[in-house]
Amino acid sequence: MFEQTFKNIDDVLWKEAGCATELDYTEQTSWLLFLKYLDDLEQRRAMNATLAGKAFDFIIDTPYQWSTWAAPRKRDGSLDHDSALTGDDLLDFVNRDLFPYLQGFRERATGPDTIEYKIGEIFSEVRNKFQSGYSLRDALELVDGLTFRSQEEKHELSHLYEAKIKNMGNAGRNGGEYYTPRSLIRAMVRVIDPRIGERIYDGAAGSAGFLCEAHDYLRYGFGSDEPRQLTTQQLDTLQAHTFYGKEKKSLPYVIGIMNMILHGIEAPNLVHTNTLTENLADLQEKDRFDVILANPPFGGKERKEVQQNFPIKTGETAFLFLQHFIKRLKAGGRAAVVIKNTFLSNADNASKALRQELLESCNLQTILDCPGGTFLGAGVKTVVLFFEKGAPTRSIWYYQLDPGRSLGKTSPLNDDDLAEFVTLQASFADSGNSWRVSVDDLDRDSFDLSVKNPNKAEAAPLRDPEVIINEIETLDREAEEILEGIRGML
């Protein structure tokens, strides 16, 4: 129903000089959708209050409500073109009045978990990139045709918005940072099997794909568009006390908020912060989670002061996140985390120490080996670690995913590719693609967890060049740190 509207919005943005990339398209669509959503939500709540004979206080003051400036209406309900701002008048209002007013909500809000605070956060992070007030007017009228009144409408809009995020990811560069293939996320969620009442966390949320897919799994089940019959209390738990996330970068934070809203989470518990600046020594039991689902950024480097927050010092962002996730899990809590496959075999001290920590403090039940091309444009191979906190690892079940074709833009990973993995993982069954390794058989010095399928001949006896390069870089960093320490002693 709404697909053509989304295409028309893209057409408007494509002609707009201020929007040059898929990232711009998604950002601009996001703030417009958010304001329309907010207006629909407030109008619905106001109507319910009136029917109940109660007063209703709008969050947004009248001059800044969507129905005042973006889509004023005549008495018959049609758009009032005579009083609707356009051209330079519209741009001036949006840039000089609307955005500063909305940004002010961050200071006026009673706390960070309120919708008011989220409004202030979003409009402090995005900016209006429309340079033509006439293009903006066209976009406003298209967005006004979208409605968020029913769960079905929100569900359809969420699918369209996910497609927009996917296009942004496929466009490459930093857009790819925010997009994890949804079929891989769904497989991770199905294996972890979260339940209503459990708290679910992603400390590197990006566009909130993990939290949204976990919500859909709890609300609809796998592969269904029909919502489950849940009690009022269960729905409230799902809304307010289930999904928690953090994101460092501005654009994915905004997209993540909008994505969660479209999936039916009205006031997302998504915080705009650098997760790694949190000191793990300060964690209390109330700060821990039942389930963690994440794909932390790999290849990033963190400063010395950030590394001081972690027992195992390393500049590799993904390795710091893995320590964070282990500490953030409750005893008995379950996690599924995507990480570069070089983590399994790197010979530097930090990698070895982290593998030992993971094996001794958690039950590393499963390693899913993903084929090249799983992440479009990433150029690295990845694995997914499935582990449970609180008991040491006795044996690890490996699964080597082989879709039987080269993955790419025209042939991405899909749910069918992962069906066998999900089925076999339930009983840790052996197959041509799966096998078990006892911890007793691991090298106690290196704790090397490399994927070596005993059912297949080694196609490449030589070590992966990326592993070698990664090790050289890490050892160089370690040598540099030792030299700095020696200099400090002189």
UniProtKB/TrEMBL annotation:
Q: Which PROSITE patterns match?
A: N6_MTASE
* Documented EC number(s): 2.1.1.72
> Of which family is this protein a member?
Belongs to the N(4)/N(6)-methyltransferase family.
Q: Which UniProt keywords apply?
A: Methyltransferase, Restriction system, S-adenosyl-L-methionine, Transferase
Task: Give this protein's Gene Ontology molecular function annotations.
Answer: DNA binding; N-methyltransferase activity; site-specific DNA-methyltransferase (adenine-specific) activity
Q: Which residues form the N6 adenine-specific DNA methyltransferase N-terminal domain?
A: 4-103
Listed name of the protein: site-specific DNA-methyltransferase (adenine-specific)
Q: Which InterPro entries does this one have?
A: D12N6_MeTrfase_N, DNA_Adenine_Mtase, DNA_methylase_A-5, DNA_methylase_N6_adenine_CS, SAM-dependent_MTases_sf, T1MK-like_N_sf
What reaction(s) does this enzyme catalyze? a 2'-deoxyadenosine in DNA + S-adenosyl-L-methionine = an N(6)-methyl-2'-deoxyadenosine in DNA + S-adenosyl-L-homocysteine + H(+)
- Domain named DNA methylase adenine-specific is located at 153-458
